Amino acid sequence: MSADLAPPSLTVPRRPRTAAIANLGCRVNQAEMEAAARLLRAAGIQIVGDEEPAELVLVNTCTVTSVADAKSRQAVRRARRRSPEATLVVTGCAVAVDPEAFARVDPAARLVGNEAKAALLAELAALVGEAGLEASGSSRRPLPTISGVEPTASSGHDPTERTRAFVKVQDGCSFFCTYCIIPRARGPERSLPPEAVLADVRRALAAGHREVVLTGVNIGTYDGGWSERGPRGSHRRAACTLAELVRRILAETEVERIRLSSIEPQHVTDELLEVWTGIGAGRCLPHFHLPLQSGDDGVLRRMGRRYDTRFYADLVARIRRAIPGAAIHADVIVGFPTEDEEAFGRSVAFIRRLDPAGLHVFRYSVRPGTPAARMVGQVDERAKRERAEVLLRLAAEARARFAARAVGSTARVLFETREADGRWLGRSEANVLVGAASPDGRSLENAIASVVIEAVEAEAPDRVRGRIVELVPPAGPAGRRMPLPVVEPRPVDHVPAASFAGGCR
Ligand code: SF4
Questions:
Q1: Of the candidates 27, 6, 10, 4, which has an alpha carbon nearest to the alpha carbon of residue 127?
Q2: Same domain, residue pair 431 and 392
Q3: Entry pTM
Q4: 404 lines ligand 1 (CB under 6 A)
Q5: Domain containing 78: what range?
Q6: Are residues 359 and 421 in the same domain?
Q7: Coil, strand or helix: which one is 192?
Q8: From the CB of 180, is ligand 1 less than 6 Å away?
Q9: Which CATH number do you get for residue 336?
Q10: To test ligand 1's pocket by mutation, which of 27, 184, 218, 219 has the most ligand atoms within 8 angstroms of CB?
Q11: Residue 127 belongs to some domain of the structure
Q12: Residues of the chain where predicted confidence (pLDDT) is lower than 50
């Protein structure tokens, strides 16, 4: 750890009355800060919006790109402007990689590296203990794993703010893709014990969450705490594989929906797919986010990725055979060093053939200290921008095509928010955004409904709208199923041609 980072015995002030949390980056950061918010609330500390002044401010940073670094520093400046007297705690990947930069931005801030984040949460847990809530068990730090590596933080969620709970099962990565700074920022892989994950899932369900998203930095490496590694980062033997973990969650809890956050292609095993099609059928959602990064084998090799395009295409075919209609989302980086026009052309052609449900497009950004930063053949910014535009158009087409295919089917939708026009918006099992009117005007927040999909939204070709035919209100798994009166199907509206003006989500 750098001398500039706070030691694990970090002390936050006792009982601030208000706290604000600014969070940047991935689902793992989100899960960690939800754990922090949960602990602070339990201690009776009011969490205010990150736009409001507070006595304690936590900023959780991200370093995935240089833009993320800049936004992280900006968040620290903004927090200090809003709360000049606050105890400002800055943590996360950008701090772990470059603490000096944050010390320059705010010399008074407490900088906490990822490896000390558990200590920060322990301090917050101590506040909970002072409030007499120790017995709840929610503040217990995770046990060391069998391999002796202690997870950086227990996972968590905010029971009141979301219909979906992000449950962290794993942290860290030691794959060292040549463009990626995350292994330095997060350290090597370590898994939470299955019992800790199960306890967190139960807490999420008890708090009313109806969907659990299993999340981590590289969740396919989940091993329950011990493993013997095989090729491509797979396991020969493990204390508990990801498939076994999901099987246990399904068997030992009343979870209604499980989704995976992104998973490396080589980790989608037959064992995992068998869980999806067997015990998990109807509860494990048909949605796989598989980072691709490039559709050119030469670029993939130089990225240090552990698969080639043939492997990826075969996997997508295998998933679609096992789970017809499954949504496949891919991440793609444009402008990686050595990606010339021919390589980019091959990548675009490959992605078209894949026919994904969506793409997340990233422009390559140099991360000092990574092998790719020193590679010859860096791509100029203009070419990166142009290639990103090509892929963003392709992404919008893909989303619109996938949404249009849902028309005429019945989807199970978890509703989340109310739109300005009064309709409710939620996500289908395959992650398509679905809008519908409440049948009797009641709130649909956190309700799961069967929706007959009638048409693509004219204004947003990647969304559909439909009619609710059955509703399970948000009373948790015990919620009463309420069939609605059968209405004769109306003619399906004309599906408008996709306007390709969308962007990457
Ligand atoms: Fe980074 Fe590669 Fe690990 Fe993903 S698998 S976190 S891209 S090193």
A1: 10
A2: no
A3: 0.78
A4: no
A5: 18-121
A6: no
A7: coil
A8: yes
A9: 3.80.30.20
A10: 218
A11: no
A12: 1-3, 8, 130-161, 476-505
